[in-house]
From TrEMBL, chains A, B:
Binds 1 zinc ion per subunit. Its cofactor is Zn(2+). ATP binds at residues 9-19. InterPro entries: QueC, Rossmann-like_a/b/a_fold. Pathway: Purine metabolism; 7-cyano-7-deazaguanine biosynthesis. GO terms for molecular function: ATP binding; ligase activity, forming carbon-nitrogen bonds; zinc ion binding. It catalyses: 7-carboxy-7-carbaguanine + NH4(+) + 2 ATP = 7-cyano-7-carbaguanine + 2 AMP + 2 diphosphate + 2 H(+). Belongs to the QueC family. Zn(2+) binds at residues 194, 204, 207, 210. This is 7-cyano-7-deazaguanine synthase.
Length: 229, 229
């Protein structure tokens, strides 16, 4: 029987590539997405298409209401900041698009599902290169989460299996991620990155997430299939 | 300004006592409860009354659907096991009432709220004495969570404030918890412990949670105000 892996999927470039990598390692894929009050809920549709295209065994969408707490431009009525280029973003500031505790909550749900399925790994597409400076994307956070997870669950007592948090993109640039995904057959036309898409699902091209995407495709020398408004 | 504390509240003896202890330390209380598909949702009503009686500044109830993953008698259509006495429960087995990742998910939400409020502590009424053998009630889990939490959040980068996970009951027996709460004015008549209450909200008296409660009141020499069916 193949090992089971939970893959956190946001319908974007990084998580889709992480899913393709898990698949290339022979894992049986259980895709997990969240409706968390994000204004860019179009990513849920993208995550469904990605899971299907990569042959996921199951795809669950969990409703969690992070708007109850507030504190982020992605969930509140705060405008998503726009910039001309990536270099205009202050790299020393945690941006207003940061959602408090988001990755911790996502990983905690993944941990619950992993325990029930007896999955041995959780894939998360975080990267410490070309990223937005979110504290919960750093390697030291992932390591601490993995340690905690193995104490939190049944396996922490029975030692039956150990849960690994896999971050295959952690040291890759956006361009490298895109090259890897293209090699593995990811259809990036199915993915979406924009924090502020229009009603037709087209991307703004000027939020930090779009800018990272555009720069990545450019550096990889690959045509960006995204429609921008 | 008083320090803010998030208190995880299930409407039971332990979390209500933890809230009273936080209050006695001068904390401003932010009570947090979860509707997680538990069959004993009467505990949500109890948690509201407790928060009110202990003067909480706010009380939030978060909907999370742990039934999507299954794997527990508290959320699935599995009968809650009944016993004659506490000694009939196999202490070396993790019981079927264990809900995978529950405390991790609860603490992750608390962490999100703490970050937004700039609260410096989260109180959780776990105890390593007279408990049900759940892996996510052990001190080593709490320590690992605290370490992870301080890396996961804005404070992990800015070093503005450190988040403490407070477990004031960790080394107390149920009887000691009850004595402490009575000293601090907790009205245990407002609390509920039963995993399998009847339609009138009365307790079964024979699930593991009721048995721990009954034993605790008996050992403390205090009258149990609970109605049993």
């Amino acid at each position: 029987m193949p090992d089971k892996a939970i893959v956190l999927s946001s319908g974007g470039i990084d998580s889709s590539t992480a899913m393709a990598i898990a698949k290339s390692k022979g894992k049986e894929i259980y895709s997990l997405s969240f409706r968390y009050g994000q204004r860019h809920s179009i990513e849920i549709k993208a995550s469904k298409k990605i899971a299907q295209s990569l042959g996921a065994k199951a795809h669950k969408i969990i409703d969690i209401d992070l708007r109850q707490f507030g504190g982020s431009a992605l969930t509140d009525d705060i405008n998503v900041p726009k910039h001309d280029t990536v270099d205009d973003i202050d790299a020393n500031q945690i941006p207003i698009t940061y959602v408090p505790a988001r990755n911790t909550i996502f990983l905690s749900y993944a941990m619950a599902w992993a325990e029930v399925l007896k999955a041995t790994s959780i894939y998360i597409g975080v990267t410490a290169v070309d990223y937005s400076g979110y504290p919960d994307c750093r390697p030291q956070f992932i390591e601490a989460f993995e340690k905690m997870a193995n104490l939190a669950t049944r396996t922490g007592i029975t030692k039956e299996a150990v849960l690994k948090i896999e971050t295959p993109l952690i040291h890759l640039s956006k361009a490298d991620i895109i090259r890897t995904g293209v090699d593995l057959g990811v259809d990036y036309g199915l993915t979406t990155s924009c924090y502020d898409p229009d009603a037709l699902g087209r991307s703004c091209g000027s939020c930090e997430s779009c800018l990272h995407r555009i720069k990545g495709f450019k550096e990889a020398g690959i045509k960006d299939p995204t429609l921008y408004y």
